[in-house]
């Protein structure tokens, strides 16, 4: 019998949260020399150099300590911020930076970082991270005022302790929160946060679909279940039931939810009914992509997952990234060949 994701209820303890702050499986083996810059986009080669220089600065500076045992960061801002559209290899570069630096170091998504603070408490999270040389944050976004205040304070504490921070985002740091909450009311916090980073732009088209066909069409339900039975380690879920299950799990647990799964099969896919469900689906898509888990669907086509109104809103880039990643995973399921990067 094929298992269901909806039957899984992963739990994560504090020590496990810390131990899991490493690049996900897809990015475990990437390095600067495995990133292939698009020759038509000079910003990509420049971004590789900027990240390599940042990693070299961390390596050179982290052994020096000033008063009270704090490491001196030396010249230059303590943060590097990779800004660009989805599918240009920002996560590849972030993970490569992490791999190039000596430990202790931590790597996680923005959601995982804010959840870590929630579980440990602010003081304990700072204590555990302050001794690190590098904190790498993927998918950096500010979705609400609470995140803005929390992250600004956290990064201030860590950078003052000598921790370097590298981050990726689809939004420039001084534009974080725009279109999502009254960001102008928190302009001071956002500007203080952005001042900690040197911004590196990474331009280019979405490499996941360059010269490749569109997502394969949804399959019939009978075929979906047959494919799931034929692949050991697969899961099969009703889309609506899985969405309801995701509502009972913090998004930081979604990675654990799909760990060990060889392929995910979703029947009866339909457009997300509201933004809350849509953002949970974005988080799930990211964790599936991190782990290179193929996806097979029946029902509505993947490009219809987020409606036109959602794509006009403040989360447009997140939704487009999710469709891009799910399309790549659906193609993987159809061809059996994961993307190269």
Automatic annotation (TrEMBL):
This protein's UniProt keywords: ATP-binding, Cell cycle, Cell division, Nucleotide-binding
GO molecular function: ATP binding; ATP hydrolysis activity
InterPro entries for this protein: ATPase_AFG1-like, P-loop_NTPase
One of the GO biological process terms: cell division
SUPFAM superfamilies for the chain: P-loop containing nucleoside triphosphate hydrolases (SSF52540)
Keyword Heme among UniProt keywords: no
NCBIfam families, per the entry: ZapE (NF040713)
Protein name per the record: Cell division protein ZapE
Record gene name: zapE
């Amino acid at each position: 019998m094929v298992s269901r994701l909806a039957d899984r209820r992963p739990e994560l303890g504090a020590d496990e949260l810390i131990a899991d702050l490493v690049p996900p499986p897809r990015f475990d083996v990437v390095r600067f020399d495995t990133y292939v810059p698009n020759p038509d986009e000079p910003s990509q080669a420049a971004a590789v150099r900027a990240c390599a220089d940042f990693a070299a600065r961390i390596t050179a500076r982290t052994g020096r300590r000033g008063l009270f045992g704090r490491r001196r960061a030396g010249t230059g801002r303590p943060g590097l911020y990779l800004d660009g559209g989805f599918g240009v290899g920002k996560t590849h570069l972030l993970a490569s930076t992490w791999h190039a630096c000596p430990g202790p170091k931590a790597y996680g998504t923005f959601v995982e970082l804010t959840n870590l603070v929630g579980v440990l408490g602010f003081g304990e999270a700072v204590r555990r991270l302050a001794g690190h040389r590098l904190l790498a944050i993927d998918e950096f976004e500010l979705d609400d005022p609470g995140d803005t205040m929390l992250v600004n304070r956290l990064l201030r504490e860590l950078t003052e302790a000598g921790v370097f921070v590298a981050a990726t985002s689809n939004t420039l740091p001084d534009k974080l929160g725009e279109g999502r909450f009254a960001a102008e009311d928190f302009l001071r916090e956002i500007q203080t946060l952005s001042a900690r980073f040197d911004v590196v732009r990474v331009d280019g088209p979405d490499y996941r679909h360059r010269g490749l066909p569109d997502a394969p069409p949804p399959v019939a339900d009978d075929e979906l279940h047959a494919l799931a039975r034929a692949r050991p380690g697969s899961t099969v879920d009703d889309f609506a039931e899985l969405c309801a299950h995701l509502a009972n799990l913090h998004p930081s647990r979604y990675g654990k939810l799909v760990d060990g799964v060889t392929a995910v099969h979703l029947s009866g896919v339909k457009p997300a009914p509201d933004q809350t469900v849509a953002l949970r689906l974005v988080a799930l898509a990211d964790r599936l992509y991190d782990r290179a888990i193929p996806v097979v669907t029946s029902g509505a086509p993947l490009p219809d997952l987020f409606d036109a109104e959602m794509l006009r809103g403040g989360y447009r880039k997140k939704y487009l990234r999710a469709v891009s990643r799910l399309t790549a995973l659906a193609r993987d399921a159809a061809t059996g060949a994961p993307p190269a990067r």
